[in-house]
């Protein structure tokens, strides 16, 4: 493991400090880093099945080994400590803890998370547990998956198991990570597991994920100490119309409804937006899908809202005869992940630098998203729970990984966070995505988001320039001048 360089840069008197208590963290997800796919009782999740389906994941990659975090967590936590991280956001593998999605826990699976949490606490790092980051047990998918209401019941049982095992040591909990991806990429466009392309099922999945969140919040409130914090993490889309036309404004409204308000409406307001119901009424009967008591359950109060942001979303109503790219930055498919708004066209912003994912780099999008969310939901604390970029990283002959593009990306986006805080947004923390290179879903190992480079052949970890830079930001509790590495 490569040591982190000591800080030799003096603090500048003019540097604007982040708020007292602001949390500096990094994030990963279970299937992306753990490996050990068939050890200690773990059974296949939908991502194990999907990654083994020919043509679904680039190069036929799987998460069987990934970054081998399951076996190397002690070294990884030691590296987190060297970087000065104050918090580590990880997710729990449902099929490692409850292999069939039903019944009693497998203690060997829970033991891994107990040991991980203890290691974090010993290192002075706050554990932040996410219950679900897309890896549904395959047996539950075989029974219908998230489009079936019973899956929300199973999730509540699972939440009780995990919070019962870790609740005395973990003080910050997230129910779901990006339910938009679980519902729409998994059941709409099919570019994520389980790979289904059924618009109606995607909307049903969205409602049952909302319901699962609410039921999990009820369980967490009942089992956790009063001081524990609960949250949900959403990849809210910062939607912009291509032009000032009424047609493009309506396209943006549609995507905001099916992409954002389908979750924030029931979770934070206790209602589904009427325009969403109208836009999708030909696909589902919301009066039958949403049962008495559902909205009260879904809208149980949370202590914070996690926001994941990478790039803005630029949309228009298509002009007849024009040629538009099918990709909306979530993976190309002949099927849309926007049920009820399949006709909306998506655009790449002109004049913007791009990441290796071909996503435009736009820190103002994060600022606007934080400010919009603050205005729409005043009094609700916010956390940036994922933000980062993939670039074509490589190890130099000297054994270093220089990534100035990522440093510039992070500087711009942390400046956006600081501007939002200065303008009144209650942002409590920032979690870099990702701590280390990992299995990037349908892209396999072809995309590197990590601040730490992983040589998958040897599993050697090499902190990139961005890791050293982020460690310096944490030490300063402030941004260094732009261009400082």
UniProtKB/TrEMBL annotation:
<feature type="binding site">
    <location>
        <position position="32"/>
    </location>
    <ligand>
        <name>substrate</name>
    </ligand>
</feature>
<feature type="binding site">
    <location>
        <position position="433"/>
    </location>
    <ligand>
        <name>substrate</name>
    </ligand>
</feature>
<dbReference type="Pfam" id="PF00232">
    <property type="entry name" value="Glyco_hydro_1"/>
</dbReference>
<comment type="similarity">
    <text>Belongs to the glycosyl hydrolase 1 family.</text>
</comment>
<keyword id="KW-0119">Carbohydrate metabolism</keyword>
<feature type="binding site">
    <location>
        <position position="310"/>
    </location>
    <ligand>
        <name>substrate</name>
    </ligand>
</feature>
<feature type="active site" description="Proton donor">
    <location>
        <position position="178"/>
    </location>
</feature>
<keyword id="KW-0326">Glycosidase</keyword>
<keyword id="KW-0624">Polysaccharide degradation</keyword>
<dbReference type="InterPro" id="IPR033132">
    <property type="entry name" value="GH_1_N_CS"/>
</dbReference>
<dbReference type="InterPro" id="IPR001360">
    <property type="entry name" value="Glyco_hydro_1"/>
</dbReference>
<dbReference type="GO" id="GO:0005829">
    <property type="term" value="C:cytosol"/>
</dbReference>
<dbReference type="InterPro" id="IPR017853">
    <property type="entry name" value="GH"/>
</dbReference>
<dbReference type="GO" id="GO:0008422">
    <property type="term" value="F:beta-glucosidase activity"/>
</dbReference>
<keyword id="KW-0378">Hydrolase</keyword>
<dbReference type="InterPro" id="IPR017736">
    <property type="entry name" value="Glyco_hydro_1_beta-glucosidase"/>
</dbReference>
<protein>
    <recommendedName>
        <fullName>Beta-glucosidase</fullName>
        <ecNumber>3.2.1.21</ecNumber>
    </recommendedName>
</protein>
<dbReference type="GO" id="GO:0030245">
    <property type="term" value="P:cellulose catabolic process"/>
</dbReference>
<keyword id="KW-0136">Cellulose degradation</keyword>
<feature type="binding site">
    <location>
        <begin position="440"/>
        <end position="441"/>
    </location>
    <ligand>
        <name>substrate</name>
    </ligand>
</feature>
<feature type="active site" description="Nucleophile">
    <location>
        <position position="386"/>
    </location>
</feature>
<feature type="binding site">
    <location>
        <position position="133"/>
    </location>
    <ligand>
        <name>substrate</name>
    </ligand>
</feature>
<feature type="binding site">
    <location>
        <position position="177"/>
    </location>
    <ligand>
        <name>substrate</name>
    </ligand>
</feature>
